[in-house]
Design brief:
41% strand; 18 strands
């Protein structure tokens, strides 16, 4: 009753997505969940967000090997439209990810990040 997703929504597996209470996922999102996706409570996810949990080995001889790493999104997080979150990233509680950001590193709780790559902008106004 407290989960909403607007289609289209795509995932490559689906079984490794764990969703908390009161979560909203807007249209056009793509979740690559083989490495695991964990979404907390009261999370808002904007249009066309990509959560990518797989990476490739840098060594050309092993580049075809996949390296899974989970994405963890805390409680009360707002992810703007067209954001990409890369493997192994944890988003702290209360954080805001600005539209169009590419998140390559962990995001501290109650902070606003944006840009490519995403960088700290300011603290969330509480």
């Amino acid at each position: 009753d407290d989960f909403r997703v607007f289609p289209p929504f795509t995932t490559d597996f689906g079984k490794n997505i764990h969703i908390g209470k009161n979560v909203f996922i807007n249209s056009g999102c793509r979740f690559q969940d083989q490495g695991g996706i964990y979404i907390g409570d009261n999370v808002l996810i904007g249009h066309n967000v990509v959560l990518a949990t797989l990476n490739h080995n840098e060594n050309p001889q092993n580049r075809g090997n996949l390296i899974p790493s989970p994405i963890v999104i805390g409680n009360d997080v707002w992810i703007g439209s067209n954001v990409t979150i890369l493997p192994g990233v944890t988003i702290g509680d209360g954080a805001i990810i600005a539209a169009g950001a590419v998140v390559t590193k962990d995001v501290a709780k109650n902070t606003v990040v944006g840009g490519v790559p995403a960088r700290y902008i300011r603290d969330v106004k509480l």
